[in-house]
DNA sequence: ATGTTC
């Protein structure tokens, strides 16, 4: 395709070259919102929340084609959305949001969730002051280095858990962890879904997925996942920051990880099945990577049951790492940690949203997009309800992270960005950056990085990502969420 | 994202 910007009549210009020969007009609705009119089988428009600078317009970047392709899915309602950190993904773009109506043949698509099912973030707020942290910093990093499992392959807080324990985790997520001593009862209050997605169906999780999962419960993994010691650098919304307990200089720990090999295997298994059964449901899609089945069907229920089990694994993962973090703080002579919030950014969920004033039960796919419920939402814990849901936005390594808050009447089914968004492939950035030099530069900037090979460090270099501050600014301007606090890293544990 | 190509 030749992608064309039609911001002002007579001022169109080409923005990229795709594969399908289709022309896409991108219409500037506001400086922070672009529209793709329905064409060639699109059932709804595409809507991209981005500044001109953040549009994914590199030559060969197919993210906007993917926004258009998602708009062709059966039962999709309102629009196919892209967040400001959108980039090219498997089937759906990363940073994509799509809602389907099961009552109108709406589908569920594994590509709309991603391989790392229930990948997400939690933020812990420490009792310790910045001065106390400084005095115990090396001891804390040493303890975390020992206690936080990470990297590819086996290893986790639970090491080799039994099949029985794994089954419990798949059914009850963080609830299992807390009930077995890996957390405090109050932790569950501040987890999305109170730590466990309902309707998990472990019977849909293959032997191979369970075997991979059994050996990794409570681990970070690799790539952009991290355990990070952070400090509140700036507060933008004083009332909300106060309610969240995020005063300037507050010490925090951010944990970003997902469902490891288990989620990956489930996605692989389910995609294989869906490609086979999809024609039987009379569904055709423009891209095999958009394989899908009706939400309200045998295979739709099977996928959602397996996905929910992986989601619970991801939540238990973050809960177990929270326990390990508390142990590290105790070992370093530092105080306790309180959970502010835990939220996924790769998930499909049934939620009630209003369409034309009417409540509808929709299947919301968020892939690289964070749920961002506004103030007063009954699904939020009482303590956070007046301000709205904390939206946790991890930055790239060595850069800031953000806490935003959900706003009333947000577009895109109450969703916001999930991070900075990659702009250079792992391969491309590894060619340009040397990991050893990067580690030195980060240390010089006051950021200690433990773990990670030079190669994996290079792959996560800040230059490979968009500027997270700019992404957050666009989220704010586009009305997706409001910035509350900016956090900067002091110490990082990476796989 | 991922026992980084079953």
Key structural traits:
26% strand, 495 residues, DNA-binding, globular, nine-stranded mixed β-sheet, alpha+beta
Structure in words:
- It is built from 14 helices and 21 strands.
- The protein has 495 residues and is α+β, with helices and mostly antiparallel strands.
- A hairpin with a 6-residue loop joins β6 (76-87) and β7 (94-100).
- It has helices at residues 63-70, 130-147, 163-172, 174-179, 185-189, 207-214, 238-244, 260-277, 298-331, 411-414, 426-432, 435-444, 454-459, 468-477, and strands at residues 2-5, 13-17, 24-30, 33-36, 46-48, 76-87, 94-100, 107-108, 120-126, 226-235, 251-257, 293-294, 337-344, 346-355, 358-367, 370-371, 390-393, 401-406, 415-416, 448-451, 481-494.
- The protein has a 9-stranded mixed β-sheet, sandwiched between helices.
- It binds one DNA strand of 6 nucleotides through residues 90, 114-117, 119, 152-154, 212, 215, 221-225, 258-261, 263-265, 267-268, 346, 426.
Spatial arrangement of strands, main beta sheet:
2-1-3-4-5-6-7-15-14
Radius of gyration: 21 Å
What structural category characterises the helix and strand content?
A: alpha+beta
Number of beta-strand segments: 21
Helix count from the secondary structure assignment? 14
**Which stretches are poorly predicted, pLDDT < 50 over at least 5 residues?**
6-19
- Report strand %: 25-35%
Biggest sheet, in brief? 9 strands, mixed
What is the average of the pLDDT values?
Answer: 94
Q: Can you tell me the overall shape? A: globular
Percent helix among the residues? 25-40%
Q: State the end-to-end CA separation.
A: 38 Å
């Amino acid at each position: 395709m030749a992608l064309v910007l039609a911001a002002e009549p007579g001022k169109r210009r080409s923005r990229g070259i795709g594969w399908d020969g289709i022309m896409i007009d991108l219409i500037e609705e506001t400086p922070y919102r672009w529209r793709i009119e329905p064409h060639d089988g699109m059932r709804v428009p595409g809507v991209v929340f981005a500044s001109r600078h953040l549009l994914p317009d590199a030559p060969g970047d197919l993210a906007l084609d993917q926004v258009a392709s998602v708009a062709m899915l059966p039962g999709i309602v309102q629009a196919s959305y892209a967040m400001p950190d959108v980039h090219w993904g498997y089937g759906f773009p990363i940073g994509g949001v799509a809602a389907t109506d099961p009552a109108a043949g709406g589908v569920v698509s594994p590509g709309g969730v991603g391989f790392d099912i229930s990948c997400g973030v939690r933020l812990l707020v420490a009792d310790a002051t910045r001065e106390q942290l400084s005095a115990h910093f090396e001891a804390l990093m040493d303890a975390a280095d020992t206690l936080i499992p990470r990297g590819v392959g086996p290893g986790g807080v639970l090491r080799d858990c039994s099949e029985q324990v794994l089954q419990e985790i798949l059914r009850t997520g963080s609830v299992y962890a807390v009930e077995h001593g890996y957390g405090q009862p109050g932790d569950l209050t501040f987890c999305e879904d109170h730590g466990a997605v309902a309707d998990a169906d472990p019977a849909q999780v293959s032997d191979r997925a369970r075997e991979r999962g059994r050996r990794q419960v409570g681990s970070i993994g690799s790539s952009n996942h991290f355990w990070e010691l952070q400090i509140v650098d700036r507060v933008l919304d004083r009332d909300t920051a106060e309610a969240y307990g995020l005063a300037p200089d507050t010490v925090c720990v951010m944990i970003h990880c997902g469902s490891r090999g288990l989620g990956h295997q489930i996605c692989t298994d389910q995609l294989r099945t869906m490609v086979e059964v999809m024609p039987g449901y009379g569904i055709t899609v423009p891209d095999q990577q958009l394989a899908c089945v009706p939400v309200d069907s045998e295979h739709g229920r099977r996928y959602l049951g397996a996905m929910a089990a992986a989601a619970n694994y991801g939540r238990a993962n973050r809960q177990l790492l929270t326990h390990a973090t508390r142990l590290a703080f105790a070992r370093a002579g530092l105080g306790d940690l309180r959970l502010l919030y835990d939220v996924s950014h790769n998930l499909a969920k049934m939620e009630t949203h209003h369409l034309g004033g009417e409540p509808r039960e929709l299947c919301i796919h968020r892939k690289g997009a964070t749920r961002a419920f506004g103030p007063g939402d009954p699904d939020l814990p009482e303590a956070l309800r007046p301000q709205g849901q904390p939206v946790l936005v991890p930055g790239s390594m060595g850069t800031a992270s953000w806490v935003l808050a959900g706003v009333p009447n947000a577009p895109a089914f109450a969703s916001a960005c999930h991070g900075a968004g990659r702009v250079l492939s792992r391969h491309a950035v590894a060619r340009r950056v040397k990991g050893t030099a990067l580690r030195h530069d980060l240390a010089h900037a006051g950021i200690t990085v433990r773990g990670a090979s030079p190669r994996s460090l290079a792959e996560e270099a800040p230059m490979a990502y968009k500027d997270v501050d700019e992404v957050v600014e666009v989220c704010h301007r586009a009305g997706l969420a409001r910035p509350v606090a900016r956090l900067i890293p002091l110490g990082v544990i990476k796989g």
